[in-house]
Amino acid sequence: MPLTEAKLKALKPAAAVYRVADAGGLCIEVTSGGSKLWRYRYRVNGKATMLALGSYPETTLAQARDARDDARRLLRDGKDPAAERQAARARIQFAADNTFRAVAQEWRSKAIKGLAQVSISKVDWQLGLIPDRLQNRPIDEITAQDVLTILRPLEHREIVDTAHRVRARMSQVFRYAVATGRAQRDPTADLRGALTPITSTPRAAVTDPQAVGALLRTIDAYEGQPVTRAALRLAPMLFARPGNLRAMEWGELDLDAAEWRIPAGKMKMREAHVVPLPTQALAILEELHPLTKWGAYVFPSIRDGKRPMSNNTINAALRRLGYDKDTMTAHGFRAMASTRLNELGWSPDVIERQLAHADRNKVRAVYNRAQYMAERTKMMQAWADYLDQLRIDTAKVVPIGKRSGASR
């Protein structure tokens, strides 16, 4: 006799497990503990098999019969219901294990090997711009439109270059997913032409002495975060790469020797670099030390003190001060120093070495490191003094190349 709700409710546990049949292979299994479990008995390839269909009353009699009927349809199609269920669960687990975030982290662990810390930070920053709603989705389900949806806001914020770089970074992750069997294709390939093209222009920089003086006075009047203000004041003085400056660590500074020693792992050219610190820079660092000495970074992030400030912090501060991206950028301080120092008569080799530009001649590179350190130290102090003069009165500035007797 088929089961009814009344019969199901009346079933009591016994010393041993027992089953009561419904129809078409469906039965209810009653355990000694009182649980009532739906089972579907069938044969596949001559072998008897039992398929679990849930528990009663969570799964009702009608629902159990529907599940049985679904299993019978699979059997008619020559499929094993248990095997199909296992495959479905595997697909679900595979999708859960292979979200964009999971695959991206796996790709990152391989891609960053041998990269400088500044490059690693750039990779992490770009991946961090991808919102959680996409990061947490199975990578094989992400479409070109999904990607475009997160790139459009970057484009609308007029950071088109960043939008293109994020698309390229995502493409690397998708191609890795394809190569490792987690995705069928790279959907970003369908976005070629969808974003505003990047206009190639030289990095904006203030180089005219009067304009430099005005910029320095504006920076001195900055009323934002003290950490940001300190970074802004050091940027023109040290003209390091923005990524190196923001990731400066207290452990890299030897204030007694007046040197900032950047390890090779942080440098773009994978070569350790020393920045001589003028007295003005030492004063700024000593003033900042009580505020950030508790952490590793000289310029920690406001949101997370265990990380350096964002790579956009200095640019954002320049915007607040009235300098748009076509007038001055964080990277522009390097162009400012290079232009002024060359015009003021300092040796191009000394300037290039201080900028940490690569020297293709390996033998000469070794010689230059030893030969130019004393001149670089002299130049950095003279440069800081020159900037101080520009703050006061551009017309009275003495050319530091001539005054210091720098090599030409």
From TrEMBL:
The keyword Transmembrane does not apply. InterPro entries: CB (IPR044068), DNA_brk_join_enz (IPR011010), Integrase-like_cat_sf (IPR013762), Integrase_catalytic (IPR002104), Integrase_DNA-bd_sf (IPR038488), Integrase_DNA_bind_dom (IPR025166), Integrase_recombinase_N (IPR010998), Phage_int_M (IPR053876). Residues 202-381 form the Tyr recombinase domain. It comes from the Bacteria. The keyword Transmembrane does not apply. One of its GO terms (biological process) is DNA integration. Keywords: DNA integration, DNA recombination, DNA-binding. Residues 98-178 form the Core-binding (CB) domain. PANTHER family: PROPHAGE INTEGRASE, PROPHAGE INTEGRASE INTS-RELATED. This is Tyrosine-type recombinase/integrase. The lineage of its organism: Bacteria, Pseudomonadati, Pseudomonadota, Gammaproteobacteria, Lysobacterales.
